[in-house]
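From the methods appendix. Each design record in this collection lists the tokenized structure first, followed by the designed amino acid sequence. Records were kept in a plain field format so they could be parsed without special tools. The example shown here is representative of the layout used throughout.

RECORD:
FOLD TOKENS (118 positions):
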């Protein structure tokens, strides 16, 4: 009389398939976590850049051409940034780019505006 059931090879193949599927699921979960952290950093960087550009607008001073460093604290993290001021074809306006980076110096966001002479 012949016994019914799975052979050892069939069980090992099934375990290999499950292991591959679980590995792919863990990888996908890790990518989602990384994307959520990146989104949080980009939002905080946007707040920092917007705050710097709003400060320039409210000061009603015509910014000089050049670069200026700044630092911003948002969501318990520090974000370094740089204000890059360049001339425009019209001398009554200046283009200002606020570039915010992460702690490792990789740029997260660049926000630009044009400021008029007061």
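DESIGN:
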């Amino acid at each position: 009389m012949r016994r019914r059931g799975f052979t050892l090879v069939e069980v090992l193949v099934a375990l290999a398939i499950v292991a591959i599927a679980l590995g792919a699921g863990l990888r996908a979960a890790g990518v989602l976590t990384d994307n959520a952290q990146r989104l949080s950093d980009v939002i905080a960087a946007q707040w920092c850049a917007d705050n710097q550009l709003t400060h320039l607008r409210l000061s009603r001073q015509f910014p000089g051409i050049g670069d200026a460093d700044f630092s911003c604290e948002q969501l318990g993290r520090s974000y370094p940034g740089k204000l890059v001021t360049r001339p425009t074809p019209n001398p009554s306006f200046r283009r200002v780019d606020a570039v915010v980076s992460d702690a490792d110096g990789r740029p997260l966001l660049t926000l630009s505006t044009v400021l008029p002479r007061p």
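APPENDIX NOTE: The chain has one helix and four strands.
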